[in-house]
Specification:
With 180 residues, the protein is of the alpha+beta class. It contains four helices and eight strands, in the order E-H-H-E-E-E-E-E-H-E-H-E. The chain has helices spanning 25-49, 51-81, 134-137, 161-171, and strands at residues 13-17, 85-89, 92-96, 103-106, 110-115, 123-128, 150-154, 177-179. The two termini are 29 Å apart.
């Protein structure tokens, strides 16, 4: 696991680091199915029609399945090896999420911090004034809402909702809307 090191100019402030989440049985089964499916189908084709038919079939199935397997592996890496982190200080919000390096969002660019609703329930959402913040713009689509908010970190072990609310109230300017 890579430990999050906030920038040297961070602090004094509050730092929240999500505890690593080990992959559960469903994720392991999905990964085994995604990786084993092309091999099983091509082995059956090789037995029935020969290697000349099985090899192109393996390539085609591999190309179809590889993006799904890569996304699953990336999610496992993000949850276990590179867990999300959020830090709050007088200058702004320091974030590491989606397995990417840390970045800072100054308070002048933050419009709202809230707890997600609907599909995003249980997530800390960050709304920025505009998509000018480089770190927020680089986040993958799965970490963005349709309204333009960034899903920073899921509440849970290491990221207590109440403690985060206290830290936001302490460090955020009054102009920022907070709904935690």
């Amino acid at each position: 696991m890579r430990v999050f090191q906030p920038p040297s100019d961070f602090g004094p402030g509050a730092l929240f680091l999500r505890e690593p989440v080990r992959p559960d049985a469903a994720v392991c089964l999905r990964l085994c199915a995604l990786l084993g499916l092309p091999l099983a189908v091509s082995a059956g084709l090789a037995r029935q029609a020969g290697l000349a038919v099985a090899l192109p079939g393996l390539v085609v199935l591999g190309l179809l399945v590889f993006p799904l397997a890569a996304r699953t592996l990336r999610e496992v890496r993000d949850d276990y090896l590179v867990p999300d982190a959020v830090g709050l200080d007088a200058r702004g919000v320091v974030v590491r999420c989606a397995g990417r390096g840390g970045f800072r969002v100054p308070w002048s660019r933050v419009r709202r911090l809230d707890a997600g609703a609907g599909r995003e329930a249980g997530w800390l959402r960050l709304w920025v004034v505009a998509d000018e913040v480089a770190g927020v713009a680089r986040l993958p689509r799965r970490r963005r809402t349709s309204e333009g908010a960034a899903l920073l970190v899921r509440f849970g072990p290491g990221v207590d909702r109440e403690a985060l609310l206290v830290a936001v109230q302490e460090y955020a300017p009054q102009s920022i809307r907070v709904r935690l």
